Amino acid sequence: MAKLLEGKVAAITGGLTGIGRAIAIGFVRQGAKVAVNHLGQPAEEKHQRCLCKEVGSENNQDDFPLYFYAGDISDPDVAEAFLASTAQHFGHLDIVIANAGVAQFHDFLSTPDTYIQQHLHVNVCGAYYTVRAAGRIMKEQNTGGSIIGISSVSALTGSGALVHYTPTKAAVLNLMQSSAVALGPFGIRCNALLPGTIKTRLNVDDLAQNDKQKQIEQRTCLKRVGLPDDIAGPAVFLASDLSQYVTGAQLLVGKFQISFLREDRLR
């Protein structure tokens, strides 16, 4: 069976853990070469080794499908350099996933100003710089491309414990819709993935409090919280030619029942 991303090159911000990691693995399994951006912290070395092992490859292979690039994506120079380096390393750039993000729970009225600043810098500015850099490279290549922003269901519904977070995910959604208009003339598709509650290191502690995970499971249509792997398939679809006429779309992955729309949750 032909692989959906054979011959494609993808770049993923924040791709060592959680949703980004799952997408990276899914892309490699579908034939893509994948560049993974990360912060470059010493603790991340083990995540790199685990990711290489997961895709069945080693750094010394001639046809190694992974490329790692360290840097804070909220810095516009890092976003530009990461994608330019990816295109140079693999020869071209076809797919970009603006995934890097932060999420810290806190009561709204006592939230430190540093929280909103950090969330804006990483979640909004980081995504903006990434999408802009991707557009520049893809326009120059003149071969089209697919850009996917990782938003959240909370962009549509809000969350009382994440008032500093949910507006940033709404911004990512609108960024992809606006970018679809701006980059469409160059054959570049821009879409947003809106995960529901996905169990990652960002929310594992919160889900463990007061049986919150069980409460969420009861209120989801599929009666379970999602796992990072649940996002990989939809990402492959939006990255592949199966969605070649899909742009400016928002794909919700993990729907809640209507009665749950006002409750707190986190992708």
From TrEMBL:
It comes from the Eukaryota. Keywords: Oxidoreductase. SUPFAM superfamilies: NAD(P)-binding Rossmann-fold domains. The keyword Oxidoreductase applies. Belongs to the short-chain dehydrogenases/reductases (SDR) family. This is Glucose 1-dehydrogenase. The lineage of its organism: Eukaryota, Fungi, Dikarya, Ascomycota, Pezizomycotina.
